Amino acid sequence: MSEIKPLEEEDHEDDLKVFAIMTALVGIFALALWGLYYLVFSVLLGKPLVTLFSTVGNILESTLGNLPEIGQIAVLFLMMSGILGIRFLLEDEDDINIYKMLIILLWAAALVAFIGLWEYSAFNPIPASVIIGISFILFIAPPFVFGILKGLCYLSELIIADSCHNPFK
User: How do residues 79-119 score in pLDDT, each as one tens digit?
Assistant: First the structure.
């Protein structure tokens, strides 16, 4: 006969920490979306970013828009696999973790930007090409942002190594 064990108390403190972190991330994404909107539509008088986003969105609409939906989904998943596949070129464990975090953050930002701007466009007209352009640029950004970060780290190591070098030895 099996023995009945008392229910173990669950650690609700860990659940609250996870909930607090997730809530903070949602707040950070909302602030980032607000800042992106402010940057694009209020600060830039000539609106070159709006032109860039609109151009990218128009290109995507005119090329991928002609494919059937299953073709669009196939192209999306092929791009995702390419972006995720760059991870296999990395050898350092820290680089892999940084790249994973960049993918998570930028793809979440792309989704939040797409949904948020799409809902905002119901009240204030925003061209769909701008929304698609912003989302696509955030979607393909992880390899480029990772390359920029690695380049900045390399330059900072060079600067620190040169400043620590004593020429009078």
Answer: 899 898 888 888 889 899 999 999 999 999 999 888 988 88
Instruction: Write the pLDDT tens digit of every residue in 153-166.
Output: 888 887 776 655 54
Report if residue 43 sits inside a domain: yes
Is 147 domain-assigned? yes
The DSSP string of the chain is: -PPPPPPPPP-HHHHHHHHHHHHHHHHHHHHHHHHHHHIIIII-SS-HHHHHHHHHHHHHHHHGGGS-HHHHHHHHHHHHHHHHHGGGG--SHHHHHHHHHHHHHHHHHHHHHHHHHHHHTTTS---HHHHHHHHHHHHHHHHHHHHHHHHHHHHHHHHHHHHH--TT-
pTM, to two decimals: 0.63
Indicate the number of domains in the chain: 1
**Residues spanned by the domain of 137:** 17-161
**98, 146 in Cβ contact below 8 A?**
yes
